[in-house]
Write a structure and sequence with these properties.
This protein is mainly α. It has 6 helices and no strands. 54% of the residues lie in helices and 0% in strands. 30% of the residues are buried.
Length: 143
């Protein structure tokens, strides 16, 4: 799962706790690769491959996640070896504008998709205490 808590991919990446950040980097690589190969019917993959603008949003999210990882850990994530291939994937996706974000969470009571992702994160953090190294939790997190 990726967490689309903002229309700004860099803001969406910044709010994640350390553990979720690392897992989300790996999931984002998987989504981008599957969008190019067409080997998945996952809702987020389907959204990503719908237009090159959607793909680019997910790629920028990947960049934001990796930037956060570097700032927190003072080293690059191992997935950076795929950055060129992932960036070039946008070229084979059909041209078009960014479409409405999809809600891939189990939280359905919010019309605003970003609020649904925030609630999904809050639910996750209730189950496992989050930690932010060299960063701060989002203002909407109340522990």
């Amino acid at each position: 799962m990726i967490f689309i808590v903002s229309a700004d991919p860099f803001k969406a990446a910044k709010v994640l706790d350390d553990k979720t950040l690392e897992l989300t980097i790996e999931k984002t690589v998987e989504i981008l690769r599957n969008a190019v190969s067409g080997n998945s019917d996952d809702l987020l993959v389907s959204w990503t491959k719908k237009t090159n603008s959607n793909y680019w949003w997910v790629f920028q999210y990947y960049n934001g996640l990796n930037r956060e990882y570097y700032l927190r850990n003072k080293k690059s994530h191992k997935s950076m070896r795929y950055v060129t291939d992932l960036r070039d994937g946008v070229e084979i996706i059909q041209s078009g504008p960014t479409t409405e974000f999809v809600n891939a969470t189990k939280v359905r009571k919010y019309e605003n998709v970003h609020e649904a992702y925030k609630k999904a994160l809050l639910n996750k953090w209730k189950k496992e205490k989050p930690k932010w190294s060299n960063s701060s939790p989002p203002e909407w997190y109340k522990n």
